[in-house]
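Before the break, one more example. Copy the sequence into your notebook; we will annotate it together after we see the structure.
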Amino acid sequence: MKPFYFEKSLGIDIRESSAALCLVGKKFRGIDVITTGAFECSPLGPGADEKTRQEFIEGVRQFLDNMQGSPDQTTVCLPRRYVSIKTFSLPAPDRESVDAMVEFEIDRHFSASPENLHVSYRVEDAGENLFKVIAGAVHTSVFEFFWELFEQAGIRPSLVDISTFSNLNLIQQGKKIVPGNEALVDVSRDSVEITVLNDGVVELSRSIPVADPDFREHFHRHDLEGNRLRPHATRFAGFVSEALQSTLYSCNFIREDESIDIIHLASGGAYHEALAFELEEQTGVSIRPLTPPDAVAKTLPLEFDAATHNTALGLALRGAQFCRYQLNLLPQERIPVRRRASLRTTVALLLVTAFLAGGFLISKVSYNNMTLNSLNAQLKEVKTQVGSLEKVDREYDELVWFAETLNQIDRDFPLKVVVLKELSRVLPKNTYVTRISISRNSMEVQGFSQAASPLIQQVEDSPLFINAAFRGSVVNQKNGQKFTIQAEITPEAP
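Here is what the structure looks like once it is written out:
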């Protein structure tokens, strides 16, 4: 039976001389990797000739043709050497003030002026009245070159992410942030990216060109045996080790006597396994290659290769689940307006709502047990009056299965229906919601409203929510004021 997906999301990881693609599908429970692809091309960037452009366009079009159908969302990342990442501290009285001050800081920390950059950033708490800003930027001319390529290839990105944060989302997805220093090493044929994290927050990230011609020549030679690649991996591991040490010393917020505790390895091409071994031997630090998160089904397509497709997978997951880093270099005017609901999505949501409503109505385990006992007694009485005992047994088994299914829904989703009903009650009619994310004790809701400022008080007035606050700034759009509200769910919530 062909699986049904609520939503399909495509991730495209563009490197200097290659591209990897990954399509995922979101099911009721879990995420499937549907298909993957990859192709090599000549170095991409402004000034590339027509042949190079056509190599990329044809590679993407071929994947889309084989995919049969359009994804609901597409997330791409540009080659890392064209993207700048800066981390800086910013004193401010509150989170809202940070957004008003960031533009001036961008002008200070990036070489180009803000009007010539596409910028996105994330803000982390760094103490009382102190925040840490992690910003990524790409020059407008570079962005326009790739945007024209995307249009010619037949794709319209919903998000333009940065490979660094796509990999970090894979590392940190669903995991508690561990104190200490970590490093992310992302190895491409033409460059290596070194990112140092302190307590889970990016301190410094830099992209370093790869000059070793032998390493570059064999990067995509997956047909070679390990002993042919080992000498190049050994030499390159020494280069990475020195780059790690230099990057660590350049971090302003890490003391000189501190060291790296864990190294996460992304990509690496044909050298992936050999490089992980050599890097651990030379640094004495535990190496952890990137792996798909737990939410992704363990059964992967045969063509899926971790060293090639993990970053593309991280990009695709931006459209399928909540991710910690949600940067987007796409200008506001080019962000596509998502359809309110397709027929497929509407039917799927109706089915899910029906199951959730049923689970809510008989959510108490004791009530289900009483119902089962009552059904058992009724069936025994029916068996004495009906000659077809086999038919009655089948009906009884179906009822037991249905009740057990409702119990499972109650255990897995105890709050979702309650939160949805409460939001419908407290939010005004001129407000509509486009996205809801609910965890164990918190929720995040996005949408549009004709007047967003009163929404915080209206949510706070509900006995179900506390500590409601806007996440980021309220943006005026033609559909109304776009907002994101975060709130905690009270412990007394059923």
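The longest helix spans residues 226-249. The domain at 1-84+134-174+293-336 is CATH 3.30.420.40 (Nucleotidyltransferase; domain 5). Try to locate both features in your own notes.
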